[in-house]
Amino acid sequence: MQEVGFREGHAVILGDESSDFNVKVTDGTWDGKPMEIATLTTGGASNVRNALKHCAEKKSAQIAVLYCNQETCEFVQGLGRYYGLKGTSQWRQFEEVVLIYGKRVVTYHRR
């Protein structure tokens, strides 16, 4: 993931996730902003939504990075499902949502 972002011109630094028990820290930085990474176990829209919900749990994360190594990924549909949670405690606005699909950064969603 770090190598893919770097090849696409981004500064990606993975952080040390060891912390005190029950303290939520982000996975590192993407272009200097705190990021949280979620790996999609399937490319379905519900899984994309759930990955974004996971990223939203880290309140300091400004960037959500989704990694998908599946043949298909319903990113746009999943993003729509995530935005359907707006107004609930499971939703928060990210500065960017980045999809790494295989070996490429293929989708950005910037506010």
How would you characterize the overall build of this protein?
A hairpin with a 2-residue loop joins strand 5 and strand 6. A six-stranded mixed β-sheet has the order 1-2-3-4-5-6. It has three helices and six strands; from the N terminus they run H-E-E-E-H-E-H-E-E. The model has no long low-confidence stretch (mean pLDDT 90).
Tally of contiguous helical segments: 3
Biggest beta-sheet profile: 6 strands, mixed
CATH class descriptor: Alpha Beta
What is the strand arrangement across the widest sheet? 1-2-3-4-5-6
> What portion of residues is helical?
10-25%
List keywords for this structure.
3 helices; globular; single chain; six-stranded mixed β-sheet; 111 residues; alpha/beta; Trna Endonuclease, Chain: A, domain 1
Would you summarize the structure shown here?
With 111 residues, the chain is an alpha/beta fold.
Which SSEs are present, and which pair or pack?
Blueprint: H1 2-7, E1 12-14, E2 28-30, E3 33-40, H2 45-56, E4 63-68, H3 75-83, E5 96-101, E6 104-110
Parallel strand pairs: 3-4, 4-5
Antiparallel strand pairs: 1-2, 2-3, 5-6
Helix pairs in contact: 2-3
